[in-house]
Amino acid sequence: MTQPSTHWNAEVYDCIGTPMRRWAQAVIDDLHLGGDETILDAGCGSGSVTFDLLERLPRGRIYAVDSSPDMISKITQAIEDLRTAKPGGRFRAQCGGGANIARLMAATHAVEEREPYSRYLGMAEFRKYRTAEEATAAMERAGWTDVRAELFDSPVRFDNTDDAALYLRTIILQRHVAALPPEHQQPFLEAVIAETVRRYGEPFTADYVRLDLWARKP
Questions:
Q1: What is the pLDDT of residue 103?
Q2: End-to-end distance of the chain based on CA atoms, in angstroms?
Q3: Deepest in the core among 50, 110, 118, 173, taking most CB within 10 A?
Q4: Phi and psi (nearest 5°) for 170?
Q5: How far is CA 49 from CA 30, 44, 86, 186, in A?
Q6: What's the CA gap between 164 and 114, in Å, rounded?
C-alpha cells in the first residue's frame, strides 16, 4: 500500500493548479473582506492564492501554512495554529467532499490490479472525503458554531492526454507514481486516463466534488 506524501513540486503546481485557484477565488469573494482582517491560509500551496488574498487585505494580516517543504520554500510567511482563532472569528474553507473523484478512484483501482502495477501498488487507499453532515458534526465537536456545509460538483476536463497525465502525476496520483519504477510511471497514468474514458466517456474528466464550509468561533 502506498503512503501519503507531503512533498509537492511547487513549480509544476504553479503551472497546472488553475482549478484550485479558481475554487479559491470563489471562497475569497464569499468572504466579503473589508481589508483589515487577519486570515490563516491553511494549505497555502505555492502561495498564488495567498497573494490574491493579500491584494484584498491592504490593512490586514495573513498567515500561510502548508505541510509540503517545497511549497513552503516558495512562500515565507508566519505560521499560527488553527486554535488561535479569536472569539467571533469566522471560519471559511473549501475542500474535497462527498463523492470527490469517486469515478477516477474506481478507474485507478482497476488499473492497480493489472500487471506490472500490482507488484508495486496493491490497492492504494485514497483519502476519505466527508459528507456535508459529517463535516458539520466534526466542526461542531471542535467547538465551532453557526456551522454550514454544502457540496457542489466541479469537474475538471482535459483536452489531451499529456495535460491530463501531468495533472494526475502532480496533483491526484502523486504517491502512486512515486511507488512505481520510472519506466512504468507514464504508462500507468495513460492507462488510468484510458480506463476512465472507457468507463465514463470523453473527454477525460477529474470528477471533483467540493465541500464549502462556514462557521464562527463562539
A1: 98
A2: 41
A3: 173
A4: -95, -35
A5: 14, 7, 23, 30
A6: 21
Asked whether the beta carbons of 2 and 175 are under 8 A apart, the reply is yes
CB 178 within 8 A of CB 2: yes
Report the chain's mean pLDDT, rounded to a whole number: 83
Q: Please give the grid coordinates belonging to residue 168.
A: 494526475
Radius of gyration of the chain (CA): 19
Nearest partner of 171 among 22, 49, 5, judged by Cα: 5
**Predicted pLDDT at 200:** 98
3-state DSSP of the chain: CCCCCCCCCHHHHHHHCHHHHHHHHHHHHHHCCCCCCEEEEECCCCCHHHHHHHHCCCCCEEEEECCCHHHHCCCCCCCCCHHHCCCCCEEEEEEECCCCCHHHHHHHHHHHCCCCCHHHHCCCCCCCCCCHHHHHHHHHHCCCEEEEEEEEECCEECCCHHHHHHHHHHHHCHHHHHHCCHHHHHHHHHHHHHHHHHHHCCCCEECCEEEEEEEECC
Q: Alpha-carbon distance 208 to 155, whole Å?
A: 5
C-alpha neighbours within 13 Å on the C-beta side of residue 130: 15
143 φψ region: left (φ > 0), alpha (ψ -120 to 50), beta (else): left
